[in-house]
Amino acid sequence: MNKKLILHLLGAILLIEALSMAPALAISLIYGDSDWAALLVPMGILTVLGAPPWLLVRSEDKANLRPREGFVTVAFAWILLSVFGALPFVLSGVIPDFTGALFESVSGFTTTGATVIENFDNLPRGIMFWRSFTHWIGGMGVLVLTLALLPKMTGRTSHLMRAESPGPSFSKILPKLGDSAKILYLIYGVLTVLEWVLLMIPGGMNAYDAAIHALGTAGTGGFSNYGLSVGAFDSATVDIIITVFMVLFGTNFALFYRMLIGDWKSVWKSEELRWYLGIYLAATLFISCMIMPQYGGFWHALRYGSFQTATIMSTTGYATANFDLWPQAVRMLMVILMFVGSCAGSTAGGMKVVRVALLFKMGRREIRRTFQPRKVQVVRFEGKGVEESMLMQISSFIIVYMLVILAGAFLISIENTYDFTTNLTAAITAVCNVGPGLGAVGPMGNFAGYTPFSKIALSFLMLCGRLELFPMLALFHPAVWQKG
After folding, report:
1. For residue 178, is it within any domain?
2. Per-residue model confidence as pLDDT tens digits over 309-330
């Protein structure tokens, strides 16, 4: 294993995290809050720790990045990001205990949006901005950001993006990975700024609140600076704007690039996009009809139904209503949508629509085989036959995904803190990177009541979900640490 290369890459990650705290520090100084030192001190620590391995590794030590190094680098990068990202919460006193701060930091970077903060009154603006900015960094991926800023860092960087990218496959939109990363972040940034402007005009938010909620939507994370989340604004205009952008950020970013180059035909032909929008529209219609008696009319119900469907499918986790009080069928559908998630190549979590669609097609193929055993049955997606090896990978992924959720739910149930529904949905929402669950961790609840052990377990589940399981699980495999 090329340990020098891994240290070199991790050093770059730490330096980028230090740089990422600068906007929050500026916010703190602009508003005159006293939390500036809680941001400046971690920036100094990150610089001191990150600079030596970044500067001292020789160019010949950067030549080869194998899959094993890629997985290890990605896993350790996200762990280090989360550990140092927790320091501002502890030093500012917003979250005094480190396990709670670590949970909040992991929740931010993995774009989960689960929180241990119970009282949102008079919290430092700089710290709250950093909390939301972790969504924006983690949404597209910190390694993607690294490649965008430092494209010549190493000769073989595709393993980094493969280990970090959400979805069953990885594809470049341009021949060079650095160029692909720049295009992705450019699209990401433009959409974020556009939403920020719209939330101010015509949304009526002030610049700070608009920035917080634009960052949370872009990263599909859902951290708000209000206890009632987006519901605190009680604005149909705000609800509509955020709903539209949640759906957009749940879309494969490669499709946005195709739009930019005028290739609209391939966008309209995208089978994944049709599945995604079809599931969203069908679920929205069903939920709106089911909750209509509670809201006194279809259009009022549609406002809340479309928002909550978008926030769950995109795994953003914002709330305008307490869906834990909605009918049982709606709550069950919400849990199902947590698993489905959005498109591969988006900032959203969940298993991804493409996997669900292929799982459905595999099931349909097996049914046909019962009465047509000799006929060759090919699973097709996006107009092409899908290789059996890919179908096997997807089946394995879904099995491991479920096992990780069940194991996590078991672990956090050991201490008997909450009921079955709360613990199971807490594990589901952690692995799927959604945020709210049901029961005590519902849209109007939080995770503060869990013990330190459970918070660490949930933090691990969130990292597993964001990194598509295997980079984190690979750390426990002996072969990863063997020489050679």
Report:
1. yes
2. 999 999 999 999 999 999 999 9
